[in-house]
Design brief:
about 30% strand, mainly beta, globular, about 5% helix, 5-stranded antiparallel beta sheet, 1 helix
Length: about 150
């Protein structure tokens, strides 16, 4: 501990809790869709680019995008086996993160893959989305399993 002006400062430990309101704004439809067990993506009406996760505005031309229901089946683009994680996932270590490619979508979607051993995963493996029954209103409400 550092001396401040030649004296020891008084330090008192107190619990601190804060609650805040988080808004998903104009991409709220994606999270509402997870409760309906649907994936919603966005498409640019000007250049045709498709985005999942969705975007309000096109990253290519800047036009405002429109919503559409995306497929829930795709294939593994790439994956990573995680042996370290944040507090929420410590009990799940190791776990697998995958980037999923979907037909008709220009981007890949990052999510968890469950129900398969890491040594059995292959690039191009077909996967399908599964949704938590009790949503927590975050991206972990959807995960993937082998198709």
């Amino acid at each position: 501990m550092t001396d401040v002006y030649s004296f020891q400062p008084l330090m008192v430990r107190r619990p601190y809790r804060i609650e805040y309101i988080h808004s998903y704004g104009e991409v709220s439809q994606f999270f509402l869709g997870l409760k309906e067990q649907k994936l919603y993506a966005s498409r640019c009406p000007r250049c045709g680019a498709t985005w999942l996760p969705p975007r309000r505005d096109c990253g290519k031309c800047g036009a405002k995008c429109n919503w559409f229901e995306a497929p829930t089946e795709g294939k593994i683009h790439t994956y990573s086996v995680l042996h370290f994680a944040g507090e929420a996932f410590l009990n799940d270590l190791p776990f697998v993160l995958v980037y999923v490619e979907f037909p008709g979508i220009d981007t890949v979607f990052l999510s968890r893959l469950v129900g398969v051993k890491p040594e059995d995963i292959v690039i191009g493996m077909p996967v399908k989305a599964r949704f938590k029954r009790l949503v927590e209103w975050n991206a972990n409400d959807v995960y993937f399993v082998p198709a």
